[in-house]
Design brief:
four-stranded antiparallel beta sheet, six-stranded mixed beta sheet, 12 helices
Amino acid sequence: MSKAGTQYRHNHYVPKWYQKRFLRPDQSKYWYLDLKPETRVSNGVNYQRRGLMHWGPDRCFAQDDLYTVTISGQRFTELEQYFFGEVDTEGKVAIEKLADVEHPAHEMFPQSDLVHYLSVQKLRTPKGLVQLSHASGVRGKASVLDIVYRHQNIFCAVWSECVWQIADASNSPTKFIISDHPVTVYNRDCFPQSKHCIGSHDPDIRFVASHTYFPLSLNKVLILTNLSWARNPYQNPLNVRPNPSFHRPTVFNYLHLNTGRMLSEEEVVEINYITKRRAFRYIASAEQEWLYPERRLKSDHWRKLGDGYLFMSDPRFLTGGGEIVIGFKGGGGAAFDAYGHRPHQDEYMNAKREAQEWDAMQRFKAEWSGIVGPEYRGVPIEWQMHREGREPIRADEFHREELRRDEQYKNRSGEQRRRRQLKRINSGLK
């Protein structure tokens, strides 16, 4: 190991290149808000440090020696120089390509590099490191950083099996803000003061109703939804998804990526509100007023954001099953079901689970049609390949049939009450 120089001791846990994606073209600084400003003592008088700063990316989301390891009095920076440096380089390319994906003509993005970057990004922040220390029972910076390195791909399989959606804020005057923990997890039943969210905790990404989201730029956000929740949002939100194991091989289907969902300003403000509530200490934005989404919302009830379905992709493209079979050059092959089970596992293509999900999907498609109408809210790449310029709207006869079925579902015992519990108390912005 080499001795540390000063070059690698000022550690950005949110990379500067990523921060710059949330500045307007004519900006070099953005508004940086400390949610927990320190109290200092001067001449026997207590005072609170200023919480709002106007700083550039060099000074934001950074901490001296966060990744520096000290051994026998000598400091070493190999993690920052070689590990995080390489992850950031590959992640930057992947994010730039993903943010530009609109239709099948675009070049495919390096998905494995992207989920690897997101996995490391979730672990490497001050919040992530504290969370990892608590979960592992390990103390000491060197030991915790060793876990980050050894488990750098921990979330990759679970995220790869999610429903992927890129949502767009281009039509909203308000744009996305970022936080000191930019890979954010939202579960509508895990309130900010619940045991799942208090302090450094995040809801487990394997809870079925846990959505993971990551802003890509001022106008784009990547949303990952557990397939089991997308297919059946009527189950307990804290159920654990099928095949919850972390470290295992799986397959990602690029053709199922959903694009084209245009967010309303209310939805953007709600997402910013979640970002702020789930931040550890700092948030930043191109405009000062975006730092205070709570001032704009008429309803900030955690479960009711987006009428309970803020991050859901349009379910009307979902299908059952999902088996993928791969053949290798020279012979041999592999097979995976939609949850990454292999043929030798008991849960592979579980018929009972698939039947339950199919019934729930039909119910949710009908409910969704009643909420949003015939127009699709984003479409998968696979469907776009066959659109041939057609408008993204449901055929009238299909939409009428779904509305008819929704009326039947509404008459089920307890259904009206369930929907009232999800609906915003007051819609719109102040």
